[in-house]
Amino acid sequence: MSQSFKKTRAFICCFVAPETCCQESEASLDALLTLIDNEKLQNGCKVLDKVNAIPPIIKLLSSTSTKLQEKALGALEKIFRLPKMRQRYASLAQMPVVDITQRGNSGMKSMAAKVLAQLNVLGEQSSYF
Q1: pLDDT (tens place) for every residue of the chain, 129 residues total
Q2: Would residue 97 count as lying in a domain?
Q3: Domains in the chain: how many in total?
Q4: How many CA atoms lie within 13 A of 76 on its CB side?
Q5: pTM for this one?
Q6: What is the C-alpha separation between 72 and 88, in angstroms, rounded?
Q7: Which residue in 2, 10, 91, 110 has its CB near the most CB atoms, within 10 A?
Q8: By residue range, what is the domain housing residue 49?
Q9: How many helices and strands in the chain, by DSSP H and E?
Q10: Contact assessment for residue 71 and residue 33, using Cβ atoms and an 8 Å cutoff
Q11: What are the start and end residues of each ARM repeat (predicted)?
């Protein structure tokens, strides 16, 4: 990632107005998610944290696009595997994830419950699994 990126402008295409959910937003999110592929998780999370991209990913949980919500949940499930990321972003993510458990489809509810379990909000033996 280039050093010329400014934290406040990073990935702005994807996150300026997540409610508009354009194809460019999805493509931008897909590009970000390549940073946290399994073997790249720790370094990718550091990059996302450094450029302040995790809060906008959390904001996508409130998007009107189910596809973007699912991708954001999947990203957060990976990101929250790291204790430092859980500690830093748990309070920001908790309510949007809880909202998905109440209004999402069954697959999203299950994934949201797993994220809440990672955040120690929901027991791992919950009926959501």
Answers
A1: 444 444 434 444 445 554 454 577 788 888 889 999 878 899 999 999 999 999 999 999 998 888 889 999 999 999 999 999 999 999 999 999 999 999 888 889 999 999 999 998 876 555 554
A2: no
A3: 1
A4: 35
A5: 0.79
A6: 17
A7: 10
A8: 10-89
A9: 7, 0
A10: yes
A11: 52-79
